[in-house]
TrEMBL record:
Pfam families: PHP. Coiled coil: none annotated. Residues 1-23 are annotated as: Disordered. InterPro entries: PHP_dom, PHP_domain, Pol/His_phosphatase_N, Pol/histidinol_Pase-like. GO terms for molecular function: 5'-3' DNA exonuclease activity; 5'-3' RNA exonuclease activity. SUPFAM superfamilies: PHP domain-like. It comes from Candidatus Microbacterium stercoravium. This is PHP domain-containing protein. Residues 9-74 form the Polymerase/histidinol phosphatase N-terminal domain.
Amino acid sequence: MSLKIAGPADLHLHSDCSDGTEPPAEVVRRAHEAGLSTIALTDHDTVAGWDEAARASRAAGLVLLPGAEVSAKHRGMSVHVLAYLFDPDHTALSRTMARVRDDRVGRAERITRNLARDLPVTWDDVLAQCADDATIGRPHIADALIARGIVASREEAFAGPLHPASPYYVSHAAPTPVEVVEEVGRAGGVSIIAHPAGRGALPDGEIRSLIDAGLGGFELGHRENTPAGTARLQRYVDEHDLIVTGSSDYHGAGKPNRLGENTTDPAMVERIIRAATGSDPVV
């Protein structure tokens, strides 16, 4: 599909269908108020918010790229793959995201049990922080700790009891980044590695494997990226003519990230749309 994009685009937004704090329609409303013209809803491992976001985007006159942030792991390191305009009914990708969601629930329960040994928090406290059918994760445990007065913010929770070095922490299962990129491609979508130049960095061999697998590009505009890490990945972009995006990674009140604090060039949005065959943008 070919579509002319004008105005600022923010391609990494979360709703309460995963770990954001606002319903999809509210995310769209706030994006419109922030002056954005193109957005992408990219909740973790779910497409549950697509329909509501589509209705709200049509009403607001925004272009919407339906998407998801798919969880992956490389040698124990968490890697997030932003997937855009894929077929939401594609069997393999749907099953992959469902497995990750199911494991997130079990993992969250195990972390909560560990915390409950020393802190006054229960699984019911965690569930009280989740919207119906939301992808449960550590942010909801953090919100339960906040509600109990144990920590003051998600940032404090992630720096303390929910940190990977904490004795309460439990790892989770996830496919490899290459597996996710391949599945997104088979589902007709375009894959972008989220905040790839921040905490931890993929080795050169893995980056080359991702490009060979059909990786679309990198989210180089993100507050977590470092200048050195961004410059390193820019060399791959230049060599392989990859797509570059910039995004806020908006979570509502769940993170300090502001809508539109990083944006994607319209020409790059158009490249994503042209390359995708799984679903169309909402216009």
